Amino acid sequence: MAAIKIIKRRIRSAKNIKQITKAMEMVAASKMRRAQEKALTTRPYSTKLREILSQLATRIRSDKHPMLRSFPDSIGATGIILISSDRGLCGALNTNLFRAMEEFKLALHEEMREQMLSFEYIAVGRKSRDYVLKTGQALYAEFTNLPERPKFEDVSPIAKLAIEGFMSGKFKQVYIVYTDFVTTLKQEVNSFRLLPIETKKLKETSETLIRPLKDYLFEPDADTVMEALLPHYIEMQVYQTALEALASEQSARMVAMKSASDNAAEIIQDLTLIYNKDRQQSITSEIADLVTSRKALSA
What we know:
The protein has about 300 residues and is of the alpha/beta class. It has helices at about 1-55, 95-110, 125-135, 150-165, 200-205, 220-299; strands at about 75-85, 120-125, 140-145, 170-185, 185-195.
């Protein structure tokens, strides 16, 4: 009898957990749709901005613009903008991000083995801040508790901080590592160099454009236009990656909560089966005892 009470208590607990995870799944699904729409809506603008810069890159000298110049002999650190979530309950999203971060650092050391690399982090999200502090690495700045629907103004301080660090020589290069949204069931960790802007890739983009380039006139000139666009381009890149990371977080949380709800349902089903078996066995034993007692009395 005691065992049956324990099983009933476990079934009740599993049902309560299922109710909680189901509610969280529905909330995450609603947030996921909004985050996906926001990320997908801004992609065309970000892509078009890159196309414009790629066209300008063929008309200017990169050494005239500080954000296009690399400083390989600089003693500055390598800055990394690491974008994670503020909260957990999103499956292996953050774990995969930090694992990829370690692999990225090893690859960077291998690529620049002739240089002494030191890393300083701009952590976006509590999980990335905790990762940096727990691993004993240098934390340059942290940005936590971003809104669930971040605006351009909410993210631009991150980009401005990276630009100021690069222009002042604090960073000789800045990379950004984040989780890119692919589909609801698939998120991939991505990374690229934010500063200095890779003019080679911009020119490659220009060469691979489907439409032939037209002969545009720039006022006052291409260099001035490029100088005005570069900070906005950096801010837009950071904003787009933040939206991608947010969409990935909500997608991963919805999938994790759905998996938890499904697991809870399986546990309830298994426990109910065990409960019914034990209850039937208990009833059979009681009937057997009654029959035995009646026979004993009648004898």
